Amino acid sequence: MKVIVPPRNRRFGTVDALGLAGILGLLVARYIPIARIIPFWGCVLREQTGWPCLGCGLTRVADRVSHLNFVGAWEANPLGTVAAILFALAGVAMVLHLVFAVPIPEVRLSPREWNVVRVAMPILIVVNYAYVVVKTRFPHVLL
Prior knowledge:
- Helix content is 66%, strand content 4%.
- The protein has 7 helices and 2 strands; from the N terminus they run βααααααβα.
- The longest helix is centred in the last third of the chain and has 27 residues.
- It is globular.
């Protein structure tokens, strides 16, 4: 892994875009009760079958992270909680970068490290989904 620190700049980049999306998403989750306002909001798969989808719990995660309830967010969807926190951190990095010209380091992975990521991510997604299924369908197992 190589970490490259560029010179000070204020160029809008990928981390800035992710940070902007994260800040906007968490602000909406904090101040606008989307799930209560939109009548069709919810998981159609869960409503029809009783089984959660891969994204079940993400609205609750955004709402709980925006209210700093990290334990509740983790219980709703652990991988979604990690993603929401990373979006929030990207928002902090965006502000530091665009306001104070703090450089955002660029991380470059070797082909072998990318292969580890390619194998690890599907495993993490499957383990996270298994947790969400057990949490929603068989909550007595987690007690």
